[in-house]
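Task 17 of the worksheet. Students: predict the tertiary structure of the chain below and write it out as structure tokens. Keep your answer in the requested format; marks are given for formatting as well as content.
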Amino acid sequence: MYNEIMNKVAIFGKKGSIAKFDLSDNKAIWVGDLADGYTPSSIIQYFDYVLVFSSTTFTGKTMLHCFNEIDGRLLWSHESKYLFNSGHPFYPSILENCAYFTSSSKEVAKLDLNTGELIFKKKFDKPLFRSYKLAIISNDIFLISNKDALLVNKDTGDVIPYPEIENSLNLKDISTLLGNGTSFTSSISTANPSHNGDGSTVIMYGGDGGGAGGGE
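Model answer:
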């Protein structure tokens, strides 16, 4: 009975647009336009935010669009080079409606999901041959390698050593991390994702689409 009541709702992507579609009534709830010639390759939902990673074969440029999941309004869009270096993996984690991520191997960034404002993009001292993963733990932002941990100031992007984690964990044994579980890594994981077929992707969920959505 529960499945019969719930509408089958999905977000589909195709060249030039995405659409929230009600499969039960066979109609589009809303359509969101992308930049001309851009084909979506990754779509992910976080509460009322829908992030769309797209690219164009004509110029090779890539873009990130952010839509409101309820009504399909375009909140903002950026060329990906504005946010992170070409070829660098895009692994955003979310805290208080802001996305935190490494924009290069030695740079940490903060993006306001409401406005698209890049609040900071700041370099930190990275030792040679050391790689950091960003994690949100409680209400703090950390950069963690297999040798040390750094604490990121949420307002300024300043980075300081945080030996407390090193004293509690053997970082050499850590192969991956999740923190608070607010990471988009399962769906938007690379700077240049490959297309499947015509490049369209879909996230599926039931009901009216409220709340956090699933991966591709």
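Marker's comment: Residues 1-5, 191-216 have pLDDT under 50 and may be disordered. The longest strand covers residues 39-46.
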